[in-house]
Amino acid sequence: MIKRIKVLHVIRSLHKAGAEKICIDICESLNNRAEVDVLLVSLSEENSFKSKTEKLPFKIINSKVFPSITGKKIVDINEFEKIIAEFKPDVVHSHLFWSELLVKEKTHQNIKYVTHCHDNIQEFKKFGFSTLLTKKSITKFYERLYIIRKLKKCDNHFIAISEDTKSYFNKVLPKSIRKVKLLHNAINTADYKMNTSKKELEKLVLINIGRFAKYKNQQFLVDVAFKLKERGYPIELHFLGEGPEFENVKYKTKTLKLQSEVFFHGNVDFVQTFLWDSFIYVHSANYEPFGLVLLEAMSAGLPVISVNGKGNQDLIVNDKNGYLLGEDVELFSNKIIKLWENKKKYNAMSKYAINYADKFDIKNYTDTLVEFYYSILK
Question: Residues 146-173: pLDDT tens digits?
Fold first, then answer.
């Protein structure tokens, strides 16, 4: 008989972002499994997934750990330790660095720990000349020293979400704690599949979903839209998301007189409806740890044309479900036009994208994750 296991997931907050979404999806899927008891703990009241957390074992606690190079360290772990004592987890699975600091502040010999590496966490970066250049980099290096001391005191395993992230952690971690497993993130593919046939579009509708930040590089897509309009194509570009670069991208749109072609929708609850009404998903991030949104787009039947952001190399099969390119407006535009003018090719890539995304379904993911939990508990 399979031993029932208890798994505690810990995350700093549940604002609308990729790491938070996969954390919720994992807990939701684990909660449906007979052999797992799951509890999700957030360290903040912020919650963009209330409809989901209402159906989950879920708690919000006021615990935090902030190391300080100046001696102003904050440690408040009472509520978290109460959760440990009451829930008695076999595995504690942490998401994002501030959760990592809390979870590792006081570890327990009877618990296995899992660090979910949603990107190449900069606090783990080794010392180099650039470390001394800014106060921020010095602080991060101090946090590296702090967390590694804690990690050496427990049985911890790392989950890397892409080959690039796995390679990063194998380089930066001391050999004594270098236990890194590659496990690509996943989505609930059924949420994104269309129930009806895709309608014929009169315009070349492009879509991009994500936070407006410099590394997300949405201004590049505005240049692509301008190039396509300049070449006479009936173009629409839809942006979903918010962030610090929002106004800058909007200003560029106005400067290039693209207000009738480029649309800003902010954060939306159901991105599916926008994906279903689009032709191609376009992605411009200079750095992409993995790319959940790329899977969402593929599952909705959209080929993906993307800047090479390293982690997304694991998702794009060139000329099959999309194209991975350099930051080249002309090349980007040509690939879009190629699919717009060759519907047979487009339909073949759309079908391949849907089937490819199925491999990353959350059920398959949690099958592997549960096997992984059992393997580290032996």
Answer: 999 999 999 999 999 999 999 999 999 9
**288 contacts 312 by C-beta, under 8 angstroms:** yes
Helical residues (DSSP H) of the chain, grouped into ranges:
18-31, 50-53, 78-87, 97-105, 135-151, 163-172, 218-230, 246-255, 272-276, 292-299, 329-341, 343-358, 362-377
Contact in structure between 258 and 229 (CB atoms under 8 Å): yes
Contacts of residue 191, defined as CB under 8 A and 6 or more positions apart, other chains included, come to: 272, 299
3-state secondary structure at position 270: coil
SS3 371: helix
d(CA 15, CA 267): 11
Residue where the block lists tokens 């606090």 = 123
Question: CA dist 86 to 36, 109, 219, 302, 361, Å?
Answer: 16, 16, 49, 46, 32
Burial letters for 74-99: b for 16+ Cβ neighbours within 10 Å, e otherwise? eeebeebeebbeebebbbbbbbbbbb
Cβ neighbours of residue 354 under 8 Å, at least 6 residues apart? 193, 298, 299, 301
- 100-152 per-position pLDDT tens digit: 999 999 999 999 999 999 999 999 999 887 877 788 889 899 999 999 999 99
Rounded alpha-carbon distances, angstroms, from residue 114 to 36, 180, 306, 353: 16, 10, 31, 31
pTM exceeding 0.85? yes
